[in-house]
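Team,

Forwarding the record for the chain on the shared tracking sheet. I've put the sequence and predicted structure together so nobody has to dig through attachments.
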Amino acid sequence: MKKIIALMLISLIVLSAFCACGKKTEDETYTDIVTAAPGETAKAGEHTRILFTMENGGTFTIELYPEYAPKTCENFEKLVRQGFYDGLTFHRVMAGFMAQGGDPNGNGTGGAPETIPGEFANNGFEQNTLSHTRGVVSMARNSFNMDSASSQFFICYTDNHTSSLDGNYAAFGKVIDGMETVDDFLKVQMLPNGNEVSKPATPIVIKSAVVVE
């Protein structure tokens, strides 16, 4: 009888040790997420990825970084899952600066029904230290209202001329694949738009945007 009890105890100890090796604590998981370098290949489940397919067949993938802008990422993913961006355009494209899209009006005046808080330093959100370098994705907003972002976003073309945006706009992700598709927007003829030449003569249409499961 004593031998049977001893064997049972040994079995329980071995089983407990096996389970502990295969399980991460919540703190360990959080550490993995926040230390993953933007632009690097993330491990499964760490960062949401969004696949954009353009009407001309080109594709690019955006990786979201909620460790910098959690509500911004949540809102962006929600809109993608709702199919909000399907059929919309990139209405403003400027070489050496950025490509902006996500406006249902197609001219920079529209957005989603809900607005979100501006998650950037000059709005009291010090957590967002993601710099506006090439490929980084950020939210457009009304210049007079820091909490006016909704659906419009932009993708940076260079490391130059965009650093001034740091702390003033909510950077929240990065193009990790297919940046050449975004570069191809610049091949479209641009027309005057106010005091800049940035309006595509031929619409640059998003066929679909989906979460990569």
